[in-house]
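# step 3/5: fold
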Amino acid sequence: MDSFVTLAYQAIETYLKTGQAMPPPDPIPEEMSGPGAVFVSLHTADGRLRGCRGTITPTEPTLAGAIIHTAIASATDDPRFPPMVLDEMEGLDVKVDVLSELEPVSHPEDLDEKIYGVLIKSGYRRALLLPDIPAVDSVPRQLELVRQKAGIGADEPVELYRFTVTRHTRSDD
């Protein structure tokens, strides 16, 4: 199992058992030693979303720390779902997406829903959509969904940003 996914899974399991966040591994693996922005997505064994939280900029000194805290938030602090309980760990599918830096986009033609995630901003409203989501088959659909998520109308002016992700899943080695 991918080390990023293993860490996220262990963080959730530890928190659900003890109510405490686990410390980062010691030593911290090289690939997790620097800061980074991360999203952790949780799906049930039958593929339904169970939680997703993340950051668009680094919030912890190390990526390992960010994965731990974001995994716990995905399991316990996604407002769409009640907090997870330990029984839900069986069959839980965990994905860890490490985000690149945000890059401003002038035109939708500079987007590709399979390659780039998108962040949209209008005043205090903003929302993010990760790339390569099964229900998103075009840039117009990606922009429609991210506008809805942010509560931004179709004709309102916006700032657009794109980013890539390095996706870690349980089958990665």
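# step 4/5: annotate
The chain has two domains: 3-99, 103-164.
# step 5/5: archive (pending)
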